[in-house]
């Protein structure tokens, strides 16, 4: 039960990131969320939308694992591991905030699933 809730939370986080990166990147909300200058946001909006799409795929995979129920455990492990690795890479290369927003929730869900 806890694993299911945590997987859903990670999926929702990634759906929110999808919205921020695909639709709100070049707005005050996107600027604040990612600490962006307006000119940088304007110049990188297409790249951000691409990133957002990938975050949507992660969310879709996690939601798919929930839809599969007991048969989706391996799917959940795969997508949570992808989120964890992406979160660690993002924290190391872009912002430490990513560690707490993406990697830690994914790790918590993965541990809850495996225990």
Silhouette: elongated
Which percent range fits the helix content?
A: over 70%
Q: Provide the structure class.
A: mainly alpha
The biggest sheet, with number of strands, parallel, antiparallel or mixed sense and barrel status, is: none
Query: In what range is the share of β-strand residues?
Result: under 5%
| Number of strand elements | 0
Structure description:
With 115 residues, the protein is mostly helical. It has one domain (2-114). It is 85% helix and 0% strand. It has five helices and no strands. The chain has helices spanning 2-22, 28-34, 38-68, 73-93, 97-114. The longest helix is centred in the middle third of the chain and has 31 residues, at 38-68. The radius of gyration is 15 Å and the shape is elongated. The mean pLDDT is 97.
List the helices and strands and how they pair.
Elements lengths: L1 H21 L5 H7 L3 H31 L4 H21 L3 H18 L1
Helix pairs in contact: 1-3, 1-5, 3-4, 4-5
Quick structural gist:
It contains five helices and no strands.
List keywords for this structure.
115 residues; mainly alpha; 85% helix; 0% strand
